[in-house]
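REQUEST FORM: STRUCTURE PREDICTION
Request ID: SP-0412
Submitted by: Lab K.M.
Chain count: 1
Length (residues): 438
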Amino acid sequence: MRTTDPREKSVAIVGAGASGLCTAKYFLQAGFRDVTVFEAGSKLGGMWCYENDNGLSSAYKTLHINTSRSVTCFHDLAFEPDVQTFPDHWDMHRYLVRYAEHFGVSPNVRFNTTVKKVRPIDDDAEGARWTVEFESGEPEHFDTVVVASGHLSVPNHVPQFREQFSGEYLHSHYYREPAPFVGKRICIVGVGNSALDISGDVCATADRCVLVARSGALIMPKYLFGIPGTDLTMMIQRPWLPGRVRRWLLRLIAYLAHGDQTRLGFRPMTQRTHATSNGTIINDVLYRRVEVKHEIEGIDGQRIRFSDGSEGEFDVLIAATGYLIDLDLVSDDVVKVERNRLDLYKRMVAPGWPGLYFVGFFNTDTALNMVFERQAAWIRAVELGEARLPAVEAMHEDIQAKNDWVRKFYKATDRHTIEEEHVPYLKDLARSLKLMSV
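STATUS: Completed
RESULT:
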């Protein structure tokens, strides 16, 4: 029989990255006594563990986080004083290990345990609600399951690039360091953070480096007036400021740092986009270490033809073309991936399936850890019985409204289906929790 004390519920969390560790911490602090974090590899930290033996990390050797340490840290644990302003992956990994140890999460992590399937128990309404099956060993039953496995581990390959280019092809997920690309002619497709970072890595020693920026970009500076860019943007990301004013101020900061980015070859922004942050790309373009193109019109062997009529021979094509949400562990009957998004209430709940939650399946315009904390607190309130989820129909209506919002303001690409501007999203979470309060 299920206990009447919610803290007696058994809780399974899939993934020991930042979102999984944060969620476990929130449950443990609330007094839940049966919390288990399942980690496929042997280390904490998820994507921030360089060369993680779970095989899922896309971290490269020179990777730094795009938000400053003051914005990136969880609210109740600062980085060590000697950590650089923009932590690298080693800093992030040490921080997450310290976070897990500081809040007593580490003993609850079961390493080298790959979750293969999470399925509902439909024949025992009074017992545990979910069965968790593993790659090896017997399945186990839980009242609550939180999927925190991330969405940046399955590369989104563009068939044209992968199949037609006869030189060396790789997705940015597999890029690790610039040494193998010295002296080569390199074409990098994408204008996100990884594409810009990799361009900066390889351009100084490449024979040629072309960046194919297929859409408009908002490239934010790492520093402005000696202040970390994200510290500046957090000053204007205030709930009382209208959204159009916040966005205008963000564009103003980018303009003050870089001027008109279209003069460098980047396309103008016609819709909202996921902002990027880079400290070198503007100079790399100005110094002609990086050439900016708009589209690839055709590929013939190693010869690539661009939309401006130019073409050239390339040794390497790096596709920084994003990732696919991989959710094989949950049946399509529970939640189905549609256009690389999950139709979840408040980005967390599959309507009609109590006790199952998803943390971190979004893109946002600020440090992820800040949003992970709010999601974890929201889920904890529901599982404690302090809040009650709305009716299934109401949740579906809310999901449809969110999808309509994304279609209205963002480019119609699969990359943008999980976009969230954190100021309205966090306000929405707080408002919904108040409305659901018991």
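NOTES: The mean pLDDT is 93.
Reviewed by: T.R.
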